[in-house]
């Protein structure tokens, strides 16, 4: 259960300028009512973050920071994160179908197609709900009730554990449960339903740091330590979940044995073909890892022959590459194994390591296989690589360009990257594309079971140690209420 501790007028809570990010002001008007409120600024465990709404992107998470008890300070992680585009090209080239290559955010608006969540079904019983607002066609504000839900998730996972069996007279086991905070929105754009951050769930996990954002935004939970301090969590997952109705076409076929040529899809019922297609969900993540100026690093695994005279013949080591320009930071995550990091070269741990966050692919790593001269590929040519990094520019928010409808690809992420600007020790933006090649099956018809994909941002030398070491074992004086608060207009 959430409790509101600060009341903030929505019209006063304007995202601060890039250079004055700490200038957000709040009115301290105490409201102890339990949350069923339109909230905007949230505190959960050691996390603080702002939840916003955009008619094109849907949910926007910004100003995410975490309190580091060891450092005695609040440390920035994410300035702004949102879904920049959802590209869905269908693979039937005939006259009636070739144009079905959709840019859902730019052409339709993810926030415009977000509908009220169903309590107990879209979100669990412990969820609190937030409303969304946008300008209608007549310029008047439109209220969308229960557009976003926020809840703690206890999935039965383990945050950390160890059993020590080296003592002759006893067995020592320590286990800590994993708890996360989820910010969820569902978008029903045409026949597909997307669950997550705008199209996503974002999840914060239980680490003295921040795991990444998924289309389900989950934030790992912080639990009070024996010293009364809260552990920080990591933004653990940026995950998108797909369900809804398959896009189908009529056909004369009634049995698979009748198909003698490329039908561009799967026969899922008599006279019904489900057409092959892709889903590419591109995230815009303006990371500020412990400060504005960051660098992008690839730690590539390299195999070496052993020349030390021992029986081992080979081993692997790490080749560190710091990206100097945008061309160096275009990555196919399915290629050579590597850790991808955003680091702050100006901040180091006591051991001398640069503080950072690591990008961890979590499945759904497909890249576009269309020809470069195909018009849908020109519109979304950025889908050839899952990872790109650009210097921050307030004009570069939307991967296919500002005007996606009938675009030709001359203004978008791929075109911007061709400038090959410097990105070392700069204010940079990480773009990550979750990709799914969807070959339909009969089990997907008529309503498709949920398929998910995403990635994580996990701390990489961000902390001096594992911040969860001070968490209490389960059942020992845990607080009766959820460790979270938020601010916003009351209803």
TrEMBL record:
Gene3D superfamilies: Copper amine oxidase, catalytic domain
Keyword Metal-binding on entry: yes
Known EC number: 1.4.3.-
GO BP terms, alphabetized: amine metabolic process
GO molecular function, one term: primary methylamine oxidase activity
Top-level division of the source organism's lineage: Eukaryota
Cofactor binding note of this UniProt entry: Contains 1 topaquinone per subunit.
Post-translational modification: Topaquinone (TPQ) is generated by copper-dependent autoxidation of a specific tyrosyl residue.
Keyword Oxidoreductase in record: yes
Annotated ranges, domain Copper amine oxidase catalytic: 43-195, 238-468
Cofactor dependency: Cu cation
Active-site feature positions: 104 (proton acceptor), 192 (schiff-base intermediate with substrate)
Record PANTHER family: AMINE OXIDASE, COPPER AMINE OXIDASE
The protein, known as: Amine oxidase
Taxonomic lineage from the root: Eukaryota, Viridiplantae, Streptophyta, Embryophyta, Tracheophyta
